[in-house]
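Holo model, phenylalanine. Inputs:
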Amino acid sequence: MSAPREQFGSRLGFVLAAAGSAVGIGNLVGFPVGAAKNGGGAFLLMYAIFVVAICVPVMIAEMTIGRASQKDPLGALTSLSGRNKGWRLAGWLSIITPFMIAVFYLVITVWIFGYLFESSIGNLDLLADPVTFGNFISGNSIFIYMAGVLAIVYLILQGGVKQGIEKAAKILMPALFIMLLGMVVFVLTRDNAMAGVSFYLVPDFDKINASVINGALSQAFFSLSLGMGIMITYGSYIDKRSNLPSSAKLVALTDTAVAFTAGLMILPAIFSFNPSVNPSELSESSVSMIFSYLPQIFLALQESLGYTGASIVASTFFLLVFFAAITSLVSIFEVPVAALMSEKGIVRKNSLLICGILLVVFALMCAFSFGFFEFFTAFISYGGSDTPKSFFDLVYDVFYDTILPLNGLLICLFVSYKWKTHAFNKELDEGAPDFKGSFLARYVNFALGTFIPLILLVIFANTVALKFFGSALIG
Ligand code: PHE
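Output:
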């Protein structure tokens, strides 16, 4: 007989772990910058509507599939579909996707770890130099940092669900909230900070167009860690007494609140430390914001706080992002680890070792994409562009940008048309006696079977057209 399935020890532990997955680099940097550039308050409003109308139902669906089947995504889609071959394929997709996302997320987390280390040993001036990032990602020291990050992730995951994932989330998430609030208070009390706040919040409906809408929905979807089997896997670790709809609402609320609060840290910081900033030059990419732009902003603080003070602020920021990245990384990596454990019946330690070795191999291929080897740096060309893409770009484009909405679409179709709404509702009602017949219950049933999959299909098709064929269907 196999060992009983591991479980979270408490509902709070589950919510914190799921929120830990959701809160990541996207919340802390991607969201604030995206909002500021794309219409401020208008973007926030649209984002909030997407979270409520689309993401919460999908999250409820994923958690319910997990709890009903008590399995990893592959096992869940296989067993709930009565071993249907097509759905088993979808199950595979929801194992491979998080694995490949873990690969590139690991690489970015390694960079953050390196920047955290460098800023805390007094090298902030070096980080602020524009050439540093390029040298850093193509330098050998990243392999040492990679070993460090892998060791941390390994230590958390080998502790299992309760002693590892839940315990880490219970320590890291409150620490993250406290650091974030501390940074917000600090930044908002600087001169000129309010210019950043108004740039962030004042609605500009003229900026909203089809591609901004598309971007806001993708951001919301990814930010909540949907479409990659994480909520299915975490859902399989909670008991029948837990209230799934209210847990999903709490996770969504936390994730959105953190994203919003991060905006109150990033934008005022930029405006206060660099009053001459031209808003339209703000980088769209979280990556270049974190690694090239923000260190310069932090260094500018030395005029008022001294070099040590500036280094402390920078280190706190990188620690904050690092905690957010680690809890996200743990959650994505748990999916293939859990799948291998239950599909092949092997123990956690061995599953971790096998997935870990594969992760290292692929992560090295990604790390090599930054000038180490021409083969990985100029790996492939597509989408009508002559400039070849690196292996890292390929993984990002295929899995993060393209497959995630497809997985979300498959989950909606699965719940509504294969597993069927009444079976879904039966599971959902357990632990949530007041949910049945509520407005949200009716909404979830309707939306999952109709317009949510339709919208995800449009996003998927549009991304494929844009990324791989070089022209948008809508945009
Ligand atoms: N949700 C995380 C963020 O907003 C990113 C993430 C992606 C986490 C994929 C897990 C899996 O940054």
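The domain at 11-469 is CATH 1.10.4160 (Hydantoin permease). The mean pLDDT is 90.
Archived with the compound record.
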